[in-house]
């Protein structure tokens, strides 16, 4: 399959705007510069042409920008699929992100907010190739982090958030202490 290597510049670049989505929409792979939108367009085109499910695998090290790349691919699908303004699927799929980050993100030596989750996002399209829904499954990558952290690292954020909230009345029954 197609492989795209992306590097996280750790700053916003003007290469993910709406006009760039439209520039890649309908183009053949290789006619434009390598881009997450080119990969998304190829998957979208093959889905429509072959009427078969397609997969985009986003992989990389901690802090590489995997979640951001997945968001850009979803933004592309919602725009070209004609549903960005109707249902805002991207926002709905990612609405659970802050909660998931609290439970599944931790401080590592390379990233203060490193996701320790793997994510599988399934996007459903209708016969006209418009997005009709999405489902995100997550799985915990590092169960060992619950009981052990390397020097300079932290456990999952949720434990620190719970301990910081010990004075709140809604947490009284949990028996938490500082």
TrEMBL record:
Transmembrane segments: none annotated. GO terms for molecular function: actin filament binding; ATP binding; microfilament motor activity. ATP binds at residues 60-67. One of its GO terms (biological process) is actin filament organization. Keywords: Actin-binding, ATP-binding, Motor protein, Myosin, Nucleotide-binding. The keyword Transferase does not apply. Residues 1-178 form the Myosin motor domain. It holds the Pfam family Myosin_head. It comes from the Eukaryota. One of its GO terms (cellular component) is cytoplasm. PANTHER family: MYOSIN (PTHR13140), UNCONVENTIONAL MYOSIN-VB (PTHR13140:SF356). Belongs to the TRAFAC class myosin-kinesin ATPase superfamily. Myosin family. This is MYO5B protein. The lineage of its organism: Eukaryota, Metazoa, Chordata, Craniata, Vertebrata. The gene is Myo5b_2.
């Amino acid at each position: 399959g197609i492989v795209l290597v992306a590097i996280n510049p750790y700053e916003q670049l003007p290469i993910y705007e709406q006009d760039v989505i439209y520039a890649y929409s309908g183009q053949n792979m290789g006619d434009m510069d390598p881009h997450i939108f080119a990969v998304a367009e190829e998957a979208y085109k093959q889905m429509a042409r072959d009427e078969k499910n397609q997969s985009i695998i986003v992989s990389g090290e901690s802090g590489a920008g995997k979640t951001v790349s997945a968001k850009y691919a979803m933004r592309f699908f919602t725009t070209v699929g004609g549903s960005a303004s109707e249902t805002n699927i991207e926002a709905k799929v990612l609405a659970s992100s802050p909660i998931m980050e609290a439970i599944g993100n931790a401080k590592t030596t390379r990233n203060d907010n490193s996701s320790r989750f793997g994510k599988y996002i399934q996007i459903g399209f209708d016969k006209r190739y418009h997005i009709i829904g999405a489902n995100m499954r997550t799985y915990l990558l590092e169960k060992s982090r619950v009981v052990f952290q390397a020097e300079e690292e932290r456990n999952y954020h949720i434990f620190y958030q719970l301990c910081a909230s010990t004075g709140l009345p809604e947490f009284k029954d949990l028996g938490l202490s500082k």
